[in-house]
Specification:
binds adenosine monophosphate; six-stranded mixed beta sheet; alpha/beta; binds zinc ion; binds FE2/S2 (inorganic) cluster
């Protein structure tokens, strides 16, 4: 297959990717150009951040978040990486994740802020999950990561935190929330969550780009990333929703994008009204971070662990 843009200029160059829902075959150079233009368009459309703001990019060591850091840097934004080192020993997961983040930080010459859970709190994420009696490490981990993104953003003066969620993540989450009719979650699922009540603005500049596109961007730019997922991630329900959507996408290209875009345009505003009435935030009595309870989930978990020791 030949690159469509090169062809329009009378050149013949082999395509490295075919983006089926856009019927677009692109060579390496034009794919990178297209990918970065799409990212910039999403940032502008949702007024995510400007070139005058510094952006905290939450990086896991995987393809999406490292591609995001690289793309934002190339687009001229003032980026800082942020990595939570969870202390997961299996498959040397945490050690290798940190190494990938460090490598990109060095390559693009941008600082990486690392929060080491064991050093700062005294426990790894698995110890925390075990101590709180939760078998699902990943959900405890999600709570801690979200908390730390806000805390570190606040302490370092960042108004905006960017994550690497892609279209596959967002459409699978949307399907899952819709099937359960989780009105609160549906109202809060968006490319931008505004800064409010002590929470940093959360943005997802890759929300319209597929996993195939983010992984291709990482590969063509020689970004080293961790291919294996977290050893604690069992067959997550999100994988089932991703498979279901992939099946529909195969039969009807463009479904994922349409499902998510139309939700944002037509349905989300209705759910958002419900959320505004629902949420009451106050300061955590221990750490001062915003929470709906007197003591936030993170402080509660850490208190319980310390009581045991
Ligand atoms: P996940 O829930 O693992 O798919 O991750 C979603 C997003 O959260 C990633 O794209 C990253 O932006 C961010 N993230 C995940 N793990 C970490 C981590 N250990 N440290 C910092 N950010 C992370
Ligand atoms: Fe945190 Fe799975 S336990 S990523
Ligand atoms: Zn081309
Ligand atoms: Zn707290």
């Amino acid at each position: 297959m030949l690159c469509r843009i090169c062809k329009s200029k009378g050149e013949r160059k082999k395509a490295v990717i075919f983006i089926r829902h856009h019927r677009l075959a692109l060579c390496k150079e034009h794919f990178v150009e297209w990918f970065e233009r799409q990212t910039e368009k999403t940032i502008k459309k949702f007024k995510m951040f400007s070139k005058r703001e510094k952006v905290l990019v939450a990086v896991s060591g995987g393809k999406d978040s490292l591609s995001l850091w690289f793309a934002l840097h190339r687009l001229g934004y003032e980026t800082y990486g942020f990595h939570v080192s969870l202390g997961i020993k299996g498959w040397d997961y945490s050690e290798r994740s940190l190494e990938m983040c460090r490598k990109l930080s060095e390559r693009i010459g941008r600082p990486l802020i690392v929060f080491d859970l064991k050093e700062e709190f005294g426990y790894t994420i698995e110890e925390i999950a075990k101590g709180t009696g939760r078998r699902d490490v990943c959900s405890v981990c999600g709570t801690f990561k979200r908390y730390l993104m806000n805390k570190v953003a606040r302490e370092h003066g960042f108004k905006v935190v960017a994550t690497g969620h892609n279209l596959d993540d967002e459409s699978a989450l949307l399907l899952s929330n819709t099937i359960r009719w989780e009105i609160g979650y549906l109202g809060r699922q968006a490319p931008v969550l505004p800064e409010e009540g002590g929470f940093a603005r959360k943005v997802k500049p890759f929300c319209f780009l597929t996993e195939k596109e983010t992984v291709s961007y990482a590969i063509v730019n020689n970004i080293e990333f961790l291919k294996s997922g977290c050893p604690n991630a069992k067959e997550a329900t999100s994988a089932t929703f991703k498979r279901a959507l992939a099946l529909i996408e195969h039969e009807m290209p463009g479904t994922k994008l349409r499902f998510y875009k139309e939700f944002l345009k037509k349905a989300r505003p209705l759910f958002e009204r419900e959320v505004k009435r629902e949420l009451q935030l106050n300061e955590c009595q221990v750490c001062g971070m915003p929470t709906t309870a007197p003591v936030c989930a993170v402080c509660k978990a850490l208190e319980r662990l310390r009581e045991r020791c």
